[in-house]
Protein: Solute carrier family 35 member D3
Organism: Mugilogobius chulae
Amino acid sequence: MDVLRTRWLGISVAVAHGVFSGSLNILLKFLITNYHFGYLTLIQCLTSSTAALTLAILRRTGKINIPPYTFQLCKDFAPVCILSTLQSTLTLWSLRGLSLPMYVVFKRCLPLFTLSIGVCVLRNGIPSLGVVMAVLITTGGAALAGAGDLTGDPFGYVTGVLAVIIHASYLVLIQKTSLESEFGPLTAQYAIACTASPVLFICAIISLDAVHMWTYEGWKDPHVTCIFILCIFIGCAMNFTTLHCTYINSAVTTSFVGVVKSIATITVGMLAFNDVAPTKLFIGGVIVNTVGSITYCVVKYFETKKKALTRIWKAKAKMADFPESRIARNRS
């Protein structure tokens, strides 16, 4: 029963992460492209500050059980915080320079980088042959889809590649921290938000985002304000589900969630923005990518089922070795 509950929790968190991540990408692209919103550091700062303040209030009122923010907590999650901030920064900058479908193509290479870094960093990080095949198929689909569009901003391509590398490192480091630390994902988000908020506030001042935002004409449009607020709250939810999904499942699984949700993101991007056309190469790449994602889901299903059966078998074998069991066998 516990195995089934854990499995469904992992699936639920993965689905939630995909929904929040895809929604945030689309909303941010709307702000940047349709409304010419360029205050990206401000979005990061407010997202981090909102998460820190909300979790602090919930902790104070006893709604959640997380430790207070201390220097030791900051020290424990400092590497994760650095990569988290870099990843979100590069993601925002790559969204500015790339079309939404091309941004998704870059993100579809995430499983390959996550797998490669995980093998080097994590203990028992060597994957099965099925997982490797699924990753290679997915990456091949991303390369095929990207071959049809090389017209984006060069700066967007550079930041896109860096965003994928840093994102993969971030996911692997989360998994490593979850194995070595006693704290859960909620504590991790609290520590990251509290540590990053002052730094992002200083960056917002230095970049003049906090100053120039008052002269932005788009605030007169209520749609801009609504999308801006949604981005902040969805960003908080996405950060938590990223941590939670990686804690419960794995770094590679979290990266594959991004691949699965990208189908909807690509569709919306092509319908809402006119910066890329659905070429045959692009559609072919999407199909190959989808096959890779399905392959990974099937492989992980059978691997999880095999692990569950192994745990049940070991539990029964352990019970069979109890003295009471031996006495019962002798009496019979």
